[in-house]
């Protein structure tokens, strides 16, 4: 039986810190996305950019939303654990009458709440600049949940394995950022050479981005095989992270 009181306490504490540092946690990613939108709007007006018979800016907007949510989910969980290791406060959590898996659940739940807030906040602001709307809210939140769970687990994995900010930022630069940029955020697979298409077709995160983008279209095509591939990949990540938390690998320096 999970200690719901402990989970609620951790989640509430992390959310208070998130809103307290709103200028960094909320406004900074929003500013980054707005700069992308404004730059591409300007370029599109001069060069008449289009993709898949539609506006290029409207095409990349969902990708920008999911990219910023993924990055924040990773940063929030990994930075929390590494910061607590640095100041020694993680020991207090470990000595408290809670299971380590409950700590993992708390961090993932926090990332889910923050990710949803961030996604909706970005979407609302985007509507003032471009013509964008959500046609399928179920799939919008469904694939948003999958992205947050994957990247928050990834952040927890990094936060437990490593003890320094250099390792956290290195992993972000060489894995999190590339997987975001190379998963169809700024381009359609239809415009790639066949050899590069093959690489993306074996990338489960590409399908997540693609399905999430489709929730902004009035016609949504659900592919069962691709979704099973996504779920399997995310379950593997969740299981590996849970095992690391359970075994306590390098939790204390």
Q: What's the short story on this structure?
A:
With 253 residues, the chain is an all-alpha fold.
Short descriptors:
mainly alpha, single chain, 253 residues, 2% strand, 11 helices
What does this structure look like?
There is one protein chain. With 253 residues, the protein is mostly helical. The protein has one domain (4-247). Helices cover 76% and strands 2% of the residues. It is built from eleven helices and two strands; from the N terminus they run αααββαααααααα. It has helices at residues 4-20, 22-25, 27-47, 56-87, 90-95, 100-126, 137-161, 165-181, 194-201, 204-214, 224-247, and strands at residues 50-51, 54-55. Strands 1-2 form a two-stranded antiparallel ribbon. β1 (50-51) and β2 (54-55) form a beta hairpin. The longest helix is centred in the first third of the chain and has 32 residues, at 56-87.
List the domain count as a whole number: 1
Could you estimate the helical fraction of the residues in percent? over 70%
Radius of gyration: 19 Å
Quote the average pLDDT. Answer: 83
Order of helices and strands: HHHEEHHHHHHHH
| Total number of beta strands | 2
From the helix content, strand content and strand pairing, which structural class follows?
mainly alpha
Biggest pleated-sheet summary = 2 strands, antiparallel
Instruction: Kindly report how far apart the N and C termini lie.
Output: 30 Å
> Which regions contain 5 or more consecutive residues with pLDDT less than 50?
none
Q: What is the approximate shape?
A: globular
- Numbering strands along the chain, what is their spatial order in the largest sheet? 1-2
Work out the strand percent.
Answer: under 5%
- Total of DSSP H or I helical runs spanning 4+ residues: 11
